[in-house]
């Protein structure tokens, strides 16, 4: 009888096929949205990536309940000791245009929120230099650097120059609550 080897081959084939078609864990994200995104992304979202991103929805800084941690870059701690925050003792240079970061499109679609701190210097010509970000996710860091990089500054009231080192400002990436 050749039935037993055929059943063994069929069982093995089904096992392999089942493994290949295993359901991805969407970690609470909308399956259709993720699948649609994956059709267009150069690097599709994996279950591991979605697991990380799922921790960045409904975060405390945006009025939610989840706590997120910053990805502190090397050298941040050394500069933070001398940082100048708005409202402190140092007269801050004034940006010539509004600070308006572009929300990373992928994170916007998925409902991912984030927090950044950006530290930078302003030189005598009013240009930004030495930009460093401390953010919850890399795409928020990229968006924050892209916002700060081209900014120009003028001297603040009572200052002779725009030159200021280690200015630090918070940037929050929060989504508006959904309308019911």
What layout of secondary structure does this protein have?
Layout: H1 3-20, H2 31-40, H3 47-54, H4 76-80, E1 94-95, H5 105-110, E2 114-122, E3 128-135, H6 138-148, E4 153-154, E5 164-173
Antiparallel strand pairs: 1-4, 2-3, 2-5
Radius of gyration: 24 Å
Number of helices: 6
Q: Can you write the helix and strand succession as a string? A: HHHHEHEEHEE
Shape: elongated
Structural class, judged by helices and strands? alpha+beta
Mean pLDDT: 87
Low confidence ranges? 1-21
Number of strands: 5
Explain the overall architecture:
By secondary structure, the protein is an alpha+beta fold. The chain contains six helices and five strands. The strands form two sheets. It has a three-stranded antiparallel β-sheet with strand order 3-2-5. It has a two-stranded antiparallel sheet with strand order 1-4. Strand 2 (114-122) and strand 3 (128-135) form a beta hairpin. The radius of gyration is 24 Å and the shape is elongated.
In short:
Helix content is about 30%, strand content about 15%. Residues about 1-20 have low confidence and may be disordered. The strands form two sheets. Strands 3-2-5 form a three-stranded antiparallel β-sheet. It has a two-stranded antiparallel ribbon with strand order 1-4.
């Amino acid at each position: 009888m050749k039935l037993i080897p055929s059943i063994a081959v069929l069982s093995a084939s089904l096992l392999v096929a089942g493994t290949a078609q295993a359901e991805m864990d969407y970690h609470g994200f909308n399956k259709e949205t993720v699948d649609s995104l994956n059709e267009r992304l150069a690097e599709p979202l994996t279950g591991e990536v979605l697991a990380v991103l799922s921790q960045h929805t409904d975060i405390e800084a945006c009025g939610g309940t989840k706590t997120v941690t910053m990805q502190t870059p090397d050298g941040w701690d050394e500069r933070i000791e001398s940082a100048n925050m708005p409202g402190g003792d140092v007269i801050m240079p004034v940006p010539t245009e509004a600070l308006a970061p572009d929300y990373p499109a992928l994170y916007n679609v998925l409902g991912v929120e984030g927090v950044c701190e950006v530290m930078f210097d302003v030189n005598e010509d009013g240009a930004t230099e030495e930009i460093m970000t401390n953010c919850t996710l890399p795409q928020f860091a990229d968006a924050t650097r892209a916002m700060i990089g081209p900014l120009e500054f003028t001297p603040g009231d009572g200052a002779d120059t725009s030159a200021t080192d280690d200015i630090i400002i918070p940037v929050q990436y929060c989504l508006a609550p959904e309308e019911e």
